[in-house]
Specification:
heterodimer; A: about 160 residues; mainly alpha; 6 helices; B: mainly alpha; two-stranded antiparallel ribbon; 21 helices
């Protein structure tokens, strides 16, 4: 079932180099952003720019160290497993988009149903689980803990 | 020594409300620890916003979170022993002798003995915390902004050299955390930094959003990848009490590992995974004369369990007295205190003794509750291991969303949490640890403010960072922790090479 495998040293080096470049680019972008911070006054000699600029320089240097010393990495999933991993945030985005308009219970039902199916539950069990989750969490948060959550059009 | 704060703390911890909160925390913590999927940080991250939204006072929230933390250190052993998969990072070494014992039909004995070792570690760690907190707090009262800044550098140096064996990645994690902490309004100059004209970023990235994204969302994706790997729960537990001969045999190791674990916990930045590894290898070096370690030796089981529980208590010392967390989990708890606008540091003991005392006292009470829970009810906790991921993980996702929404009432925060979770997953796949990011984040603002205050005092002269004895001692300690592991690993490599050469000859 699992398609994650321990990567070879070449893959680890590749992951290390790609990550190092990404971090270096991020450090440069952050540093440029930091040096452009606008302010009219500062009550200390350092001001709001120097600390972030220093962090950008340090991150840049550490990225170079990381390039030469990639350490170890876990392999990235491929094929159907990667699709399932990426499906989790998609289901979450749908559920969160419905959170306020459709309400907490409906949104949680969709989230837990989708997530259960992605995690390999048989459809009938996933459906029962989602109904159980929606009911349980609605009761726990709305009545037991009295946490405010949007009721939405369904229950509002 | 003034232990007045502790008696005050017992008065707080022994109220009915806090006893109940402590009991609930211990129960949830043991379950969280037992589940291989989630560790103490996840448990705390998920429950923190709910506790905050429910309006619990700061001391009760701290008692709840501390109970979850200690409970998870107890619970971690259950899956290590029954599943050969550690329930949390501190229980990795427990599996080495715990699982072989379980395979020999002695799972119940292993659970009972490790429960006792956890209790001894937890109680000795609590005593150490009660005694050391006022001492260190008194010492730290003399700290100025320069000393604080160098202290935080020392914490990062300790983390970089002692955690994970990948110093570049650990330090990158710290810097990323520091960078995330710069987002938002700069209180000194009124400048907005990295907010991209988004009003919701004006106050910076919220702690709850970051911690839930990094730990819970990325963890859910990791669980999805790892599910399906062959795991068999050992169901035959056998006798459920420890044999007296085993208790006597392991008592020396337990006491020594407790002290060792506490000391490692006090060091800023290091956590239970480091201490349990050191305790196990020390016990092996001293006691493994017959080559029984790794084959079900009770001392190999007791050492990491005593150490990781003592570490959990030791990690509170720097957090409560210096405002510098001793582990990833205490970094999250430090963030929790900040949610209540409480800045941990040497003055906390003077200004809010009920929080420090209540937390310390609750650790004593919590360890007794945990022993009572873990010996007779261990079979119930073992059942948690059979909950399928398709039922468990959706629950984690619900708690993540509700946790963030309840704390901030904003859908933007949920999207931000999800984005952070995805980046966290990518970083984890590339071999990064999440704890340094949290440590960097919670220390970020304090570190910058202290540097700026120090330089404001000195008129911009950097020499202020080297001007006091405390600063210089901290610089030396930082250098020492940065260099010593490099020297030791080179020496070990040379020894192994010499040994191999001798064998070849």
């Amino acid at each position: 079932m699992s398609e994650v495998h321990h990567p070879s040293s070449v893959t680890v080096r590749l992951i290390g180099r790609v990550s190092a470049i990404c971090l270096l680019v991020f450090a440069i972008a952050y540093g440029v952003g930091a040096s452009g911070i606008e302010y009219s006054f500062a009550s200390d000699p350092l001001g709001p720019r120097v600390f972030p600029v220093a962090l950008a320089v340090i991150l840049g240097l550490l990225s170079i160290w990381y390039w030469f010393s990639p350490g170890f990495a876990e392999g990235f999933p491929t094929g159907p497993l990667l699709a399932r991993v990426l499906a989790v945030p998609v289901v979450m985005v749908v559920a969160v988009a419905l959170f306020e308009p459709a309400g907490f219970a409906a949104s949680i039902f969709i989230l837990t149903l989708g997530a259960a199916l992605i995690f390999g539950a048989p459809p009938a069990k996933a459906l029962i689980g989602a109904v159980g989750h929606a009911a349980l969490w609605w009761f726990v948060f709305s009545y037991l803990l009295e946490v405010y959550l949007p009721a939405g059009a369904l229950f509002g | 020594m003034n232990l007045e704060y502790l008696w005050q703390g017992f008065a707080v911890a022994l109220t009915w409300q806090n006893l109940l909160i402590g009991f609930v925390g211990c129960f949830i913590g043991t379950m969280v620890g037992a589940l291989p999927a989630i560790g103490p940080i996840n448990g705390i991250a998920l429950l923190l916003p709910i506790a905050y939204t429910m309006g619990l006072p700061a001391e009760s929230t701290m008692i709840l979170l501390a109970a979850i933390y200690c409970g998870a250190e107890y619970g971690g052993r259950i899956s290590s022993i029954l599943l050969n998969v550690p329930g949390d990072a501190g229980a990795v070494m427990t599996a080495l002798d715990g699982y072989p014992m379980a395979r020999q039909g002695r799972a119940g004995e292993a659970l009972a003995l490790s429960g006792l070792a956890s209790f001894v570690g937890g109680i000795l760690g609590s005593i150490g915390l009660a005694l050391f907190a006022p001492l260190l707090s008194g010492l730290a009262i003399g700290f100025g902004p320069a000393e604080y800044f160098v202290l935080m550098l020392f914490a990062f140096a300790t983390l970089g050299s002692m955690v994970g064996g990948q110093p570049a990645k650990t330090l990158i994690g710290c810097v990323l955390g520091l960078m995330l902490a710069t987002v938002g309004l700069d209180a000194t100059s009124g400048a907005y930094r990295f907010t991209f004209n988004e009003p919701e970023l004006g106050d910076g990235i919220e702690f709850v959003v970051l911690v839930i994204g990094l730990f819970s969302i990325s963890e859910a994706l990791i669980i999805l990848e790892h599910q399906g790997r062959g795991m068999t729960v050992i169901r035959e537990l056998g006798r459920m009490t420890a044999q007296m001969s085993d208790v006597v045999k392991s008592i020396g190791t337990t006491l020594r590992s407790s002290v060792l674990g506490f000391v490692v916990g006090v060091l800023p930045g290091t956590g239970a995974s480091v201490s349990s590894a050191i305790a196990y290898t020390t016990a092996k070096r001293i006691s493994d004369t017959e080559g029984t370690f790794g084959k079900g030796d009770v001392r190999g089981l007791a050492a990491p369990e005593a150490a990781n529980n003592a570490t959990a208590c030791g990690a509170f010392v720097p957090m409560l007295t210096l405002g510098v967390p001793g582990s990833g989990t205490t970094a999250v708890m430090l963030g929790a205190l900040m949610l209540y606008n409480i800045q941990p540091g040497p003055m906390l003991l003077v200004e809010r003794p009920e929080i420090v005392g209540g937390l310390v006292a609750s650790l004593f009470v919590g360890n007794i509750i945990l022993l009572a829970l873990n010996l007779p009810l261990v079979q119930i906790f073992a059942r948690v291991l059979t909950v399928p991921n398709w039922l468990l993980v959706p629950g984690i996702l619900v708690l993540s969303i509700v946790g963030v929404y309840s704390a901030h009432s904003s859908v933007f925060s949920i999207y931000l949490m999800m984005s952070i979770g995805l980046v966290g997953w990518l970083l984890r796949k590339a071999g990064f640890d999440m704890a340094p990011i949290i440590l960097g984040f919670v220390l970020g603002r304090v570190m910058e403010v202290n540097l700026r205050n120090a330089l404001a005092i000195s008129g911009g002269e950097l020499s202020i960072l080297f001007s006091s004895t405390i600063c210089n001692v901290l610089w030396c300690m930082a250098l020492l922790v940065a260099i010593l592991p490099l020297y030791l690993s080179r020496r070990a490599k040379r020894r192994i090479a010499a040994k191999n050469l001798a064998i070849a000859e």
